[in-house]
Design goal:
The structure holds two protein chains of two kinds. By secondary structure, chain A is of the alpha+beta class. Chain A has helices spanning 6-13, 63-76, 81-85, 89-95, 104-121, 144-154, 159-166, 176-189, 211-231, 260-275, 288-294; strands at residues 26-32, 37-46, 51-60, 135-137, 142-143, 234-242, 245-252, 280-283. In chain A, 44% of the residues lie in helices and 18% in strands. In chain A, a hairpin with a 2-residue loop joins strand 6 and strand 7. By secondary structure, chain B is of the alpha/beta class. Helix content of chain B is 39%, strand content 14%. In chain B, a hairpin with a 2-residue loop joins strand 14 and strand 15. The two termini of chain B are 42 Å apart. The chains are: A alpha+beta, B alpha/beta. The A-B interface holds A 1, 12-13, 15, 18-19, 29-40, 58-66, 100, 102-103, 112, 116, 126-128, 130-135 and B 302-307, 310-311, 313-314, 323-326, 328-332, 343-344, 347, 379-383, 397-402.
Chain lengths: 295, 402
């Protein structure tokens, strides 16, 4: 049974604003009947102010689809169209205190219904290129279509690549077989053979940097974060750069700090933005485990 | 726990008498049946008795044809992989589009490994075309794996006849009888069925115990190698308490066989008729004239199954659905799709599966509750208007993107 939040259950058992809105002037019909969810969102918009006076829905779908529809109508009533369009699917999920990863698409459907209804009100044609595949990575809710598209457009050839680009497979790793299957299929299409375990070729820096330029940029990023670390009584030093792996040494109070992983993650993110490529930051020498053993 | 449990094809409650029989095997009878002392000896004897009880339920000729496994899925995998290993020159498998994932997913995997898999289609009532089956059988067929009864609709396949045909073609025949065993009489000694899978928890024994029936003389290659347990055909220390429990449950199922096929069937029929009479635009899926006595699968058009289950659950009623959402997949039940049930109905299928513990009172209660739940959800459905579906529902609501 799904682990639905109390709020999801509440909006399912007592849906708000369900039923036909007779004098709607914006209607959006979206969904996918094959995957069992479809939604009609009806808006009554005040033309002078663009304010949504009323919003109602009809939904063919599961508990979370009905709850997402109900939540959406509650969220957008009283907003202007511009404000309403800023509501993201994550906002809908947050409003409901979260949705299971398999059910996030219900909130996506809500957002799309909103876009479709606004387009309909404005006399525009709304079309969507969103295509949804089977859920592969449950940790990060990444589906097969996204993985396949990403492999195709970025010429990926390893599970690690896929994790770097989409996060899929970066959690519990149970989906790696599924990711390998997609890799094998897509690589076959482009005339290559998927070889498990073969580390991705360390290509030259996508930003077109020489090794020296890269290392200087890495150092510049570390310099930038250093004052912050020093304030907390710690420091960081660059140990080595091996392809996409950057080895650092955390010293002082930073070493073994409970926030070490989080700090490194932040630095890794800054490095990736600066270098415009996926890199992995690895702390050397100091590990809380060895310290614990020594201590 | 109170509540109305009509989901016995998913799993059953362990009969209290079965639990009672099992308990000593967790405490004083904890010995390893392989051991050379009295701690193990009594356990060995208890397992021997359980093997004979299961033999009786399956109508097997010898008790040595019964191999205890950990579950139905293990039995299915063992059977199919063994047939391929034992006949390396034969590279083809025949199965059906409506098998349980335990068989279908394995076959998809084997296809990637280079085996050819023939999937037999079914008609609108879930029935096979025997001419298509005959045409697929050849000297390349290693194994035919066809379920005895479908888990979603209860529909029977003519496995006894199909086993004869497979045997004539020199192919092995396996059947997943996880839903059938304990609900309908089996008499394997008079059939050409080589291998058959049973799952304990579908017949009031615990989870984690299964059986592979292996007809004497059938060439076999074990999946688990190691110790000499189960005559070397399934290594691993015996799950003695569960084996004893399954033996007792098999004996109880034998004793209740007539009841299952008369009284349980009567309650099922009453439930089905009661719901169909009160709910418009609903119909039975599968073959109502040829199915398990306890199963009724009803499609409620224009609404979605998970929503139905959530509302049923609020009334303490447990059932299951073929909708995509209940499994987290994007497609509704492959069984419903194989029968050509349209999406607007396939997503709204609900399976009620009774047991010998189901009561008239429970049936009456479900008949009373279901129509209002269906009406409530239809009021939310964009395909529905007032008391009936919108005129031309597929046109009245045609959402963007599929």
């Amino acid at each position: 049974m799904w682990d639905y939040s109390d709020k999801v259950k509440d909006h399912f058992f007592q849906p708000r604003n369900a039923g036909v809105l007779a004098d709607a002037n914006g209607v959006g019909d979206v969904g996918s009947i094959s995957c069992g969810d479809a939604l009609r969102l009806m808006l009554k918009v005040e033309p002078e102010s663009d304010i949504i006076l009323d919003a109602q829905f009809q939904t063919f779908g599961c508990g979370s689809a009905i709850a997402s529809s109900s939540a959406l109508t509650e969220m957008i009533r009283g907003l202007t169209l511009e404000e309403a369009l800023k509501v993201s699917n994550q906002d809908i999920a947050d409003y409901l205190d979260g949705l299971p990863p398999e059910k996030m698409h219900c909130s996506v459907m809500g957002r799309e219904a909103l876009q479709a209804a606004v387009a309909n009100y404005r006399g525009e044609v709304w079309s969507d290129d969103h295509e949804e595949g089977a859920l592969v990575c449950k940790c990060f809710a990444i589906d097969a279509v996204l993985i396949e598209d990403t492999i195709r457009s970025n010429h990926l050839c390893s599970v690690q690549d896929v994790t770097n680009y989409t996060k899929a497979g970066g959690g519990c790793s149970s989906c790696h077989e599924g990711i390998e299957d997609i890799l094998a299929r897509v690589m076959k299409d482009r005339g290559e053979t998927y070889k498990p375990g073969s580390a991705p070729k360390e290509e030259a820096s996508p930003a077109g940097l020489t090794n020296l330029q890269r290392i200087r940029r890495i150092e510049a990023v570390l310099e930038a974060v250093r004052p912050q670390l020093k304030r907390d009584g710690g420091d960081i030093e660059l140990v080595d750069v091996d392809g996409k792996t950057i080895y650092v040494n955390m010293t002082g109070a930073c070493a073994g700090c409970q926030m070490e992983a989080l700090t490194l993650q932040g630095i890794q993110q800054k490095l990736m933005e600066e270098l415009k490529e996926f890199i992995k930051i690895v702390p050397t020498k100091v590990s809380s485990l060895t310290r614990a053993m020594k201590g | 726990m109170n509540g109305i449990y009509f989901d016995n094809n998913a799993t059953t409650r362990v009969d209290p008498a079965v639990v009672e029989t099992m308990l000593p095997y967790f405490t004083e009878q904890f010995g390893n049946p392989s051991s050379m002392h009295s701690f193990g000896n009594k356990v060995g004897l208890a397992i021997k008795k359980a093997r004979m009880q299961v033999q009786e339920l399956l109508g097997a000729e010898y008790d040595s044809e019964i191999i205890f496994t950990s579950c139905g899925t293990e039995s299915d995998s063992t059977a199919i992989l063994s047939a391929l290993k034992a006949q390396p020159e034969r590279r083809e498998i025949i199965t059906t589009t409506v098998e349980h994932p335990a068989v279908l997913t394995l076959c998809t995997y084997l296809e990637k490994e280079g085996y050819k898999v023939h999937l037999l289609q079914v008609d609108g009532k879930g029935r096979l075309d025997m001419d298509e089956y005959r045409a697929r059988l050849s000297d390349q067929t290693a194994v035919v794996s066809v379920m005895w009864a479908n888990n979603e609709t209860g529909t029977f396949f003519p496995v006894v006849e199909m086993a004869e045909l497979a045997n004539a073609a020199g192919a092995m025949f396996h059947t997943d009888a996880v839903q059938a065993a304990g609900k309908v009489p089996l008499n394997l000694k008079d059939t050409k069925i080589d291998m058959l899978s049973v799952s304990g928890h579908k017949l009031h024994a615990p989870k984690g115990i299964g059986v592979l029936y292996l007809k004497r003389g059938t060439r076999f290659r074990p999946m688990l190698r190691g110790g000499h347990q189960e005559r070397g055909r399934r290594a691993g220390t015996e799950n003695s308490a569960s084996i004893v429990g399954l033996g007792h449950a098999a004996e109880m199922a034998m004793a209740a066989m007539t009841f299952e096929n008369t009284e349980v069937a009567r309650l099922r029929d009453k439930l089905e008729a009661g719901i169909l009479a009160k709910v418009p635009r609903s119909f039975v899926t599968g073959d109502p004239d040829n199915r398990l006595p306890n199963t009724s699968n009803i499609a409620f058009e224009f609404i979605e199954g998970e929503a139905i289950l959530l509302l049923l659950n609020k009334f303490g009623i447990a059932a299951s659905s073929g909708s995509a959402c209940t499994s987290g997949s994007l497609e509704p039940s492959h069984v419903m799709r194989a029968m050509g049930i349209p999406y607007t109905a396939a997503h709204g299928t609900v399976r009620f599966s009774l047991s010998r513990y189901s009561t008239e009172f429970e049936v009456n209660r479900v008949i009373q509750v279901v129509p209002e739940i269906i009406a409530q959800l239809r009021r939310l459905s964009p395909y529905w208007e007032g008391d009936g579906p919108a005129a031309e529902p597929e046109k009245a609501f045609a959402p963007v993107y599929a």
